[in-house]
Amino acid sequence: MPTNPNQNEKVTNPEDNTSSPDSNQTKSAVDKTHVRTFHADVKAQRGDATHVESSKTSSQESTQATGKREGAVVHTFKDDVQHLVRNKKMSMTRIAALESDRRGREANSAPQEEPKKTGIVVALSVLFVVIAAVFGLGAWYLSQGQQPTNAQQLDPALIFVEARERADISDLDSRQVVELLTTIRRNTFSALGSVVELYLLHTPENTAAKQETAHVSSIAFLTAIDAQVPLSFTQTLQNEYMLGIHVIDENVPFLILKTQSYGHAFSGMIAWEPYIESDLLPFFSPATELIRPAAAEGANAFTDDVIENIDVRVLSDAEGRIRIMYAFIDRSTIVLTTDVRTLTELANRLRVQ
């Protein structure tokens, strides 16, 4: 069946104005939509291009900055390596070995600081212990040196004393004994007001292999200094006595004797008066000075005096200075000294004893 050409033209002719209003509206909407989309796409593409361009620029700038920073570090190390290779004629192996050693030293330097500090603390502690031990040993040796050389117990003192000084008079003559006592008097240092006993020792004649020192008795002491005392006086003396020093503004010597007979002791002291000072000089010299006896100056007379209710016999020189004095503190105790203060102190200690 043949087709109608007019119908075909009517359908296919675009210029046909007999189209329906709905078709025209749809076509117009499509066209408008197509045009709007195209412009939007163009603007979007331009915006994207601008954004992309700015992003590329920012990225390039940041990349360049980062590259500059990274390149600076790498470049410096590279320059160092090139300098060593070119100028120092060093191989890459040698450079790598040196770099490894450097890193090893840096890694080990920090942990070594603490052991060093610990070592210093330990060394100082050991040094402190050694110093303390040395001082302790020194004090022990000093204390040992002040103890008797043997196990002999010292005789009890007649009165309370603050110290006791030992002196060995073995193999010494009379002048040497007095000079030794004078030296001890000059070199004795103790607290003010204290009394120091001079504990005399000697080695008795003995055939035994072991020699031990013994305390010198009163009669042995007077014999050692060649004291010119009558025999009747020495026969009444007891073995115990005290020879010592009273420390005041000077070291004042004294001698304490014990007797069994007041009558014989009193007459014996009267007979000894002309020789007492010469027998005891220079140990009994005033202020440890080497002076002539009062007898050589024509003042050899003892006089009676009373000091602190004590009857005293006093020898003074031409200037009125007391050279020596003695007193019976009781009927069995005789005290010889050169100072009134010492006589008073010894009398008080004897009463307390």
What does this structure look like?
Helices cover 52% and strands 18% of the residues. With 353 residues, it is of the alpha+beta class. It has 2 domains: 79-147; 163-352, no CATH class. Strands 1, 2, 3, 4, 5, 6, 7, 8 and 9 form a 9-stranded mixed beta sheet that branches. A hairpin with a 2-residue loop joins β8 (322-330) and β9 (333-337). The protein is rod-shaped, with a radius of gyration of 62 Å.
Q: What is the fold's blueprint, element by element?
A:
Elements: H1 5-12, H2 21-86, H3 92-146, E1 163-168, H4 174-186, E2 195-202, E3 214-215, H5 218-224, H6 231-234, E4 237-247, E5 251-259, H7 262-280, E6 302-307, E7 310-316, E8 322-330, E9 333-337, H8 340-352
Parallel strand pairs: 1-2
Antiparallel strand pairs: 2-3, 2-4, 4-5, 5-9, 6-7, 7-8, 8-9
Strand content: 15-25%
Distance between the termini: 176 Å
- Rg, rounded, reads 62 Å
Helix-residue proportion: 40-55%
Counting DSSP H or I runs of 4 or more residues, the number of helices is: 8
Instruction: Report the biggest beta sheet as strand number plus sense, adding barrel if it closes.
Output: 9 strands, mixed
Order of helices and strands: HHHEHEEHHEEHEEEEH
Q: What is the approximate shape?
A: rod-shaped
Overall pLDDT confidence: 76
What's the total number of strands? 9
Indicate the structural class.
alpha+beta
